[in-house]
Every structure is written in C-alpha cells, then in structure tokens.
From TrEMBL:
Assigned keywords, A-Z: Membrane, Signal, Transmembrane, Transmembrane helix
Signal peptide annotation: 1-27
Basic and acidic residues compositional bias, start-end: 305-314
Parts of the chain that traverse the membrane: 270-289
Region described as Disordered: spans on this chain: 230-267, 289-314
Protein name: ABC transporter-associated repeat protein
Top-rank taxon, per record: Bacteria
C-alpha cells in the first residue's frame, strides 16, 4: 500500500469517526453514567493526578455545602471527585489525527493538518472527557440548568469544543479563537460528551465558570481552571502553569449575592499589605531626612539678629 493510499484511508477513517456520532450515539452519551446521580459521593480526593485514559466528567458539586466545579474521575472504583488544580488531563499522541477534507470540519484547520482530538464517542487508549450536572445535591436543588462559561484560553494553539449533531453536522460550543467569554447551558441531571480539539502540542489552560440558581432562589458560582497537556511533553509541567484567572489577586464578586465567589486565587490581595508597608517606610525616611537637615543648621547669634534689625530699620 503506497503512502497516498494510507493517508486517504486515514482521513476517511477520521471522517467516519466524526460522522459516526449519529443522534443515536449522541443520545447514549447524554444518558446517565453508571451510578451517577444515585450514590452519595465521598469526600474530595487529594493529591495530584494525571489522567490519560478512561472516562472523566467536569461539573458542579456541593462539597460539604460549598458550590464548586470539580472533575469526577471514573478511572477509580468508586469514582472520585477531584479539585481541578490537582488534575492534568493528558491528550496523548494516540488522539492525534489529520483534519478531514470535508468542508464541514474546516474550522479545525487545513485538510491534512494535525489535530489532537478527544472524541465524543469513547475510543480505546484515548481520554474521554464529558460534563454532567448529576451530582445528587445539584440534581435535586438546581432550577432548570447550569450555565457553563468559557472565560479564557491559554495555550500554544487553538481550542475548539464541538458536538456532532444530526448526520454528523458539527455544532461548535466553544471556540477559543473567537471573542470570550462564551457560554452554553447544561440541563439539570444531564450527562453529555463532545469533541475536544487542540491544534498544537503543549499545555492548555481553560478558565471556566459554572453558575446556577437553586430552587430556594439562591445564586451559586464557581470559577476553575481546566488543565490539558497535549502531545508528548511531560504532562506534569501543566501543574505549575498559571492561567489569567489564577493570577488574579482579588476574588470576583457575585452580582446576585454580593459575596466573594469560589475561585482558584488566594482569598486576600497579598500585594496590598506590602504596598502599604513600603509607603510607610518611604514617608518615615522623608521625615527623618528633613529633621536631619534642620538639626544641621546653626542658630543665628545675637549680633547677627541686631545687624538684621538695624538694616530693616534704615
């Protein structure tokens, strides 16, 4: 088999994989995960974790009454909810494909260009991330839906999250090349998968916000950063990277409750105390210098005062 035939076959298989997400498969992806929404989840897991294969979900959770965005790790038994800062989602080279020639997928790049794709339908050896609103307390208390917002994208290439609708027609949910923020809705007690596409290898940081109103009229909001390591680099490098949201020193204010929302950043503006201390030191140094100058001056003698008074009287 020659190289041209191999490339044509590879592109055809990629297109088949993308188009294979028919309404029937999409409906299966939106069905509840095994046991999701039914069991009482344990405490949040601890320790840094790189996940490169198997099923994970991103979603809101009430962690001891605190609304927060976490990652449900189904690669453990039982499943474990983890803080996003403790997880790197590894997009290995097994997820690397070529952009198909179909014009419908032109938003991924030029046909034949490489793209790392975590597909909507589970594939062996490739991470399968989705999103859900099925955590028991969330499913029971949220009114209608969760608002999911992408606020910033930091990475060496482009990021696109899209669904395959009827007849494989792509529907873009998030496109990091366009103006942000962008948002979509997650119906309460739902579980969905999509296609996560990255155009270059390296570390990607996606700042996201999930918010909702509960049936008691209260508003809830949480901002978190999703870490993806794409390609052959050491995925642990993504743990030390900082996104724009993580660099903020002051937590944002929830417009509905006028309370600081749950964020990745530190709870207090640390630079404020240091700035005030520096200002106090500067003022004290200026006052000391002025006093020194006054002490260095010699007081006028009686003769000098008399001569000045005589001159003023003439």
């Amino acid at each position: 088999m020659n190289t041209t035939t191999m490339r044509t076959g590879a592109r055809a298989s990629v297109l088949a994989l993308l188009v294979a997400c028919t309404p029937a498969l999409s409906a299966a992806a939106e069905s509840p995960a095994p046991g999701a929404g039914a069991e009482a989840m344990p405490d949040t897991g601890t320790g840094r974790t790189v996940i490169a294969d198997g099923h994970v979900d991103i979603g809101p959770r009430f962690d001891h009454g605190r609304w927060t965005v976490q990652i449900r790790d189904d690669t453990t038994k039982p499943a474990t909810w983890r803080e996003t800062a403790d997880v790197v989602l590894h997009v290995k080279d097994t997820a690397k494909i070529e952009v198909p020639e179909s014009k419908e997928f032109g938003f991924l790049g030029t046909p034949g260009d490489p793209v790392w794709l975590l597909p909507q339908v589970q594939q062996a050896g490739v991470l399968w991330p989705g999103w859900n609103s099925q955590e028991p307390e969330v499913a029971a208390s949220v009114d209608r839906e969760v608002n999911w917002r992408l606020t910033s994208v930091k990475g060496p290439g482009d990021f696109v999250l899209f669904l395959n609708g009827s007849f494989g027609t792509p529907k873009i949910l998030f496109d990091g090349r366009k103006e942000l923020p962008q948002e979509t809705g997650i119906e309460v007690n739902s579980h969905v998968h999509g296609n996560w596409a990255f155009t270059e290898p390296g570390t990607y940081l996606l700042d996201v916000r999930m918010s909702a109103k509960t049936k008691d009229g209260k508003s809830h909001r949480s901002e978190r950063t999703l870490r993806f390591s794409v390609g052959p680099q050491d995925p642990r490098r993504a743990f030390v990277a900082k996104s724009p949201a993580e660099k903020r020193t002051t937590p944002p204010i929830d417009a509905d409750t006028a309370e600081p929302s749950d964020t990745n950043g530190p709870a207090a503006p640390l630079w404020w105390g240091a700035g005030v201390a520096a200002a106090v030191v500067a003022v004290a140094a200026t006052l000391t210098w002025r006093r020194g100058r006054n002490r260095g001056r010699t007081a006028p003698s009686r003769a000098e005062n008399a001569a000045r008074e005589e001159g003023e009287g003439q």
